[in-house]
Amino acid sequence: MPALSALPFLKPSPLRSPLRSPRGQRRHTLPASEFRCLSPEDAVSVFEIEREAFISVSGDCPLHLDEIRHFLNLCPELSLGWFEEGRLVAFIIGSLWDQERLSQAALTLHKPQGTAVHIHVLAVHRTVRQQGKGSILMWRYLQYLRCLPSARRALLMCEHFLVPFYQKCGFEALGPCQVTVGDMAFIEMQHSVRGHAFVRRNSGC
């Protein structure tokens, strides 16, 4: 499994120079912008962002706190967080799935032998929305998946109003999803992550 630090498109951009003290000595500062896999220690921050983003819209969260910890323990390499000055501002959590389409079991299971990455949730902190961060994070996440030997495609389910957003990210609609949550219905979407030899050759994978 490649380390995120080895992937050029996931490295933080040098957005500012390190601060210096009056005597000219360099002071240590947090990176202005950093992308890395999440850990179980990030679960509370993840849930706080997710809860605010989803409960006001749908009344529930894709993942509850214990489920977030579950996936960040089982497959942290399939998550990606965007941190600004050490603060989490956006994230994606995924797991592996081993069937052609998503089913109800995909909501809670991680199938290590699977070749489809089920994207459970993408959320952005309310203070930095409408800045394109969701699209940027998804692009970086898909680039990362192309470096994972087991990943062949990415799957997600979303409500109808989010279909145009994911289409702009390169996903195609597969039709109604088998999964339901309460009285909510979803569209299942797919993005191929195989057959990108040029990307692999030039990404440090």
TrEMBL record:
It is found in: Cytoplasm. It catalyses: a 2-arylethylamine + acetyl-CoA = an N-acetyl-2-arylethylamine + CoA + H(+). One of its GO terms (molecular function) is aralkylamine N-acetyltransferase activity. InterPro entries: Acyl_CoA_acyltransferase, GNAT_dom, SNAT-like. GO terms for cellular component: cytoplasm. Residues 33-194 form the N-acetyltransferase domain. Pathway: Aromatic compound metabolism; melatonin biosynthesis; melatonin from serotonin: step 1/2. Its EC number is 2.3.1.87. GO terms for biological process: circadian rhythm; melatonin biosynthetic process; response to light stimulus. Keywords: Acyltransferase, Biological rhythms, Cytoplasm, Melatonin biosynthesis, Phosphoprotein, Transferase. Belongs to the acetyltransferase family. AANAT subfamily. This is Serotonin N-acetyltransferase. The gene is Aanat.
